[in-house]
Amino acid sequence: MLRLKTRSSSGNFSPRTRKINLKRMQEEEFDLAVIGGGITGAAIARDAAMRGIKVALIEKADFASGTSSKSSKMIHGGLRYLKQLDIGLVKESLSEREKLLHLAPHLVHSAPYLIPIYSGWKGRLEMHIGLFGYDFLASDSSLGRHHNLSAEELLHEEPLLRKENLSGGFIYYDCLVNDARLTLATVKSAHEYGAVVANYTQAEGLDTDKDPFNEVKFREVMKGKQGVIRARVVVVAAGPWTEELFKLHSDPGPAIRPTKGVHLVFPESRLKVNKVVVVPTTDKRIIFVVPLEQFTYVGTTDTDYSGSLDKILVEAADVDYLLDALNNSFPSVNLGPDDIVSSWAGLRPLIMEEGDPSKVSRDYYIGLYDGGLAVIAGGKLTTHRTMAKNLIDQVLERYGHLLEGEFQTCTTDEVPLTGGEMIDFPSYLKAQSLGLKTRWGLSLTSIEHLIHSYGRNHMEILALGLSERKLLEPLGPGCRVIKAQVIYGVEDEMALTLEDFMSRRTDLLHFNGVGGLEVVAAKLMGKTLGWSRARRQAEIKKYRQTVREMFHFKLGSS
Q1: What are the residue boundaries of the structural domains of the chain, listed by start?
Q2: Is domain 425-554 given the CATH code 1.10.8.870 in the classification?
Q3: Please, are residues 95 and 142 in contact by the beta-carbon 8 Å criterion?
Q4: Which residues lie closer than 8 Å to 554 by C-beta, 6 or more apart?
């Protein structure tokens, strides 16, 4: 019998949902259990649920709290992979870029990228050939094609760039994304199709010798309660933590080579760019300089990492490396560590191979083991959907005899993520912005932020203001985030801690020009979740410690 799945009309995704899900995980039996709530695990759960596979997903911290919220926030083909002749990866990435523009048009949007050339006609010719190949591989793209700029035209676009030896440049097009919210939208979409998911739930044991069900022993992190998920197939999609999880199992998993990527954030007043600027580093890599509202973020580094997987800090050497590249390309700005307003560091879960970290393949690995255990590792944010599709295809081929019933084929390339159900996003944004400004009295900045963050679901947030008008107020003077988003983050996005809201339901941890917002957010969260005064103060203290750790590099350089 073919299992047909349609999206549920219930949008509730709250702490109460989580409590029910944890109970279901212990009482019910599943076709598939996914360990890992980053973008890959979320995409696997969504794909499986949409095919009619009964799936449970657990994440030891918050959704997207690892690699999936620490990226360069780009959906791109990977222009530099062409130089490494990884044609297949570039073509797949460009195809997925186009799909994601339609699946999540509110979160993924086109942006112009500018490349200055300082190596004369030879450098311009090489880059022109590379960009021509990039455009050719993206033949079905809705984005614009690259074009040449003279030195004068390039400096008109970006007047802060170094003028010495500038021979011209190029503009090409790729996409930017809110990575954490893309992951959350994928998790919520999985939930809407029946996936049973829970954050702050850590896998602590893995037994694939049981018959007919494998067992994943877990601990609910908040209260320490333990349980067991019984599933016919278990998938490990834990990114940098893959090897750590395989210590729970007798089979050796794939060897992971974690590399560290660091990003720095500056106020626009200290580093203003009009487009995403691609600049070279002293070791012949490239970094991206990205404008985002009144800020500019810069990254990334790419160095081998052997420290704690749960606390990745920005070191003084990371900062020096990025500042050297910036001050070389923008000599008039003279940036220093004191200009940095926030930072983040994450790990790429690359498959082990020798050589320069920047040249290690961004392709992915799928491993299938006896007894119904599967693993996926490597890959990149852009290809998460097709990674999930290929894994589920292989799981059904290898373990289909363990599962009961027939399942639908993959449709994740056709069905938008929650909030993304619109054909023409620019027109939708324009029409909604005009109407909402008149009716609700919100600033245009807040309205555009709501629509870009939640898509069509933004009306659910505004509806909270119907009963309590104060919820439509900003968290603080000049802040684009309104108070209703805190309530929605808890009741419809399963935020359980202050950092969940400040860092991943919104991006206020890294892009915030207003002080003290954590106090207001904690008060609203506390009222919704029933926190005591002591718990609320503890959440504020923990969040402020996270903020201090962003500036660890200042301690390291003292």
Answers
A1: 2-67+181-255+361-407, 100-176+257-357, 425-554
A2: yes
A3: no
A4: 316, 337
Please, which pLDDT band fits residue 19 given cuts at 50, 70 and 90? very high
Distance CA 516, CA 521 (A): 9
pLDDT at 557: 46
Q: In the prediction, which pLDDT does 6 show?
A: 63
Q: How many CB atoms lie within 10 A of CB 97?
A: 26
More confident residue, 257 or 138: 257
pLDDT value at position 121? Answer: 62
Q: Which CATH number fits domain 2-67+181-255+361-407: 3.10.20.30, 3.40.47.10, 3.50.50.60, 3.40.50.300?
A: 3.50.50.60
| pLDDT number for residue 308 | 93
Cβ of 166: how many Cβ atoms within 10 Å? Answer: 16
Question: Do the Cβ atoms of 381 and 349 come closer than 8 Å?
Answer: no
Domain 100-176+257-357 has CATH 1.10.10.10: no
The pLDDT tens digits for 315-373 are 999 999 999 999 999 999 999 999 999 999 999 988 875 555 555 556 789 999 988 99
Closest among 252, 259, 245, 255 to 204, alpha carbons compared: 245
